[in-house]
Give the backbone structure.
Amino acid sequence: MFLGKVAFIGAGSISEALIAGLIDSGYIESDQIAITNREDLERLDSLHTKYGVLATTNRQLAISGSSVVFLAMKPKDVTVALDQIKSFFNEKQLIISLVAGVTINTIKQLLGNENLNIVRAMPTTSSLVRKSATALAYPDEVPFEKVQTAKRLFERVGIVAKVEEDELHAMTGLFGSGPAYIYYVIEQFERAAMALGIHRDIAKPFIQQTLMGSISMLQETNKSPLTLRKKVTSPNGTTQAGISVLEDREVANSFLNCFIEATVRSREIQEEYEKINKI
């Protein structure tokens, strides 16, 4: 059981996903969680009703009483938001930034304190069902116990790995955005099912079972996706006919370019933010 309280600054989908996953894990009780945003009272009321957390526009109340504070605002809002709340932090707290494209050094500058304990994390909205893949980055000077606190929190909602801060761009492009790519593929399954005359009520569970079965095969056989794919792909069979279309359309290269572009965009967000704010 987590000892202490946590606060979320920003009430978007990633905050909700983490709150739901952490409460579901039993590691944190709802009365240990506070969430705040600038002005969306309807959103705060909804989160309070749904999860029983303290939802307030009083950011000092949320931050000052918490041992862990999640920064979950949009990159464009970071400068103003941190300037308004920087006096509420102290050096005993752990600050976990979920903000893409804003470095730890930048956050320290904005908060006006080089001695704050800051970890950057890139979880996914799959935290809601405790299936996130979360990358953590932090400088060596963050105390061991603070790092362990961050790891334990994210381990309750999925798997965790430490990376260098600069590697977060690729981790964001591949895995932070990863669920959206998978949902896109599922959309195409649904579209094809309708085009081929398969009823939606049949198609939906079959698509889900196909995906879950494939993941289970990867996990339980420990075989590579290439090996498993070849076992399904008989020469001149139906699967080969479908794969040939994907190869003719260079879908593999399209996926690679998708991941590259997302990674590049993560770097661009950081550069744009630093340019605008003259950091």
Summary: The chain has a mean pLDDT of 95. The radius of gyration is 21 Å. DSSP finds twelve helices and eight strands in the chain.
